[in-house]
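Progress report, Aim 2. The chain analyzed during this reporting quarter is listed below.
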Amino acid sequence: MAAIAALPQHRPGAEFGPLRAKPGQSLPPGSCSPHRAAMAAPAVPGYSPGFKKPPAMVRLKRKRSRRSEPAASASPPCAAAPRVPSAPARRNPFSSLENAPRAAGTPKPLERARLPPSLAGESPSAVPFWQLLEPVCDDKPIPRPQPSDRTDILALTKDIHLPVAAPEVPSSPRHEFPADWSIKTRLLFMSSQPFTWTEHLKAQEEAQGFAQHCRATETNLPQSIQEPKLSTELRCAFQQSLVYWLHPSLPWLQMFPRIGADRKLVGKASPWSQDEALQQVLMSEWSVSFTSLYNLLRAKLCPYFYVCSYQFTVLFRAAGLAGSDVITAVISPTTRGLREAMRSEGIEFSLPLVEESRTRKQKNSDVNLETEAADGLEMSNSTEDGEEPAPSDDDDEASFSWLEEMGVQDKVKKPDAISIKLRKEKHEVHMDHKPESLALVKGTNTFTLLNFLINCKSLVAVAGPQAGLPPTLLSPVAFRGGTMQTLKARSVNAKARVQLAYEDISSLEIIGPVMPHTLHSLTMLLKSAQSGVFSAVLYTHEPTAVFNTNPDNARPALSKECIHKDLSACGLQPKTLDQLSQCPTLGKYSIRFLEMKDYAYTWKS
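Predicted structure tokens for the chain:
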């Protein structure tokens, strides 16, 4: 009986939970909210109010997890209820690092991009985390931090990946920018004057632009056009500059870029992937188109063209372009297996960036040997640019000589010839898939390269979304089996931040495989239409940036008269031909930002 008397007395309605107020009524004085009452209950063994009312405990945990709203401020404190300290908030694993709590005095990390409130409609921290993820092989320029007093170039569309600040540009403007042999995936032109002259082309203007492209008609525009929207000649020339030729053409597939495009091609229909007969037909047609392009190039009726496979890209250039008097072909990126296969087929090629690095290090070695100790110098030269010296036979013999002195050379297993060969080629394998792996083929070896690529089994993927799909051929002129395509263009009006204010700005966006001649043609049109004032952000297909390497440093550039005579029928405008005939000067980089003021160019690579 004593044990029974010790138990708490039964209260009416206790099984239904704490007392609640009905609509229009209030609880008696001294009463608390359900979870407060649960906390205020006496600590009697066997009594668990949280067990009887789980919803009350859930509400309690929610309030305890809020750092900014402690449980004490949510409702009036109860006299008998003890104060519960708030638990530390857990960090959201899906949030960006910029939103993570930081300790006092910790500097705020650099923001990748910031859109103005008028464009984004929300703060940068409120952007969903999935928008901050970037593809591995996306072609976007890297935004760089700039001083706050500089003019910032804002995203003209709601794209968080657009750069927010104009990079530094050369201080000496020029009347022409250097040739850029890389393929651009996107151009974004900006100007204070509208781009309405690029919109809603009439059927007659569009047809005239196609005809001018096929006939390689030269367009001569005045330095400044007062009413660009009313200039039919300008609008036809704009349509002419957007045309390019492609093979194979599959409307439901994006044929460029091919490197890193597996994710975009997943789930698309590919009936040839399991049909060998269909694959043979596709490769046969592709071989005919490839041979047609090379014949046009050799006859100087095509200035250049690209072969874009799923692993590498090849640029064929006619004699007279890029400062070379013979046909050249550059391949990037390459691997040791591809280079060995080319050597076995008798293709002579060079590695310009590797040879340039060796020459530079040799010059530095000759200069430093006169002033520094030889031991320390060899160490610094061998580790320059993160490269290792190629092992020699003497090193291998010396490494095993001590075994013979001890008389245990027969008991120790020496590495076989294959292992020694791989060790010697370790420095060559390290540059695979890097810009330094650029291979240059010149002269008649380009024809051997043509046959090698046609018969190369590794040119076409055998598995994955690109299985059985021939490489993409891109050309500025028509060829057998080629399909005429046009770049996508649209104009957008937005605002740009200048100092502490926003100004109206117009933009012209070009999307697609933008080849070197197209970039130059568009800048010539904008020069006249925008009164010599505009800027552009260029998005490069990164594997092609290394094509700006000078193919032949020893030979002087050909004369302009000779180039115009030989390549007069190649399909390029004379001014564009002048630019592309110059020796490349950008090295393994490409132009990222281009600006024109007072009809003079400045750029940043």
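The first helix runs from residue 2 to 6. Residues 262-351+438-483 form one domain. These observations will guide the mutagenesis work planned for the next reporting period.
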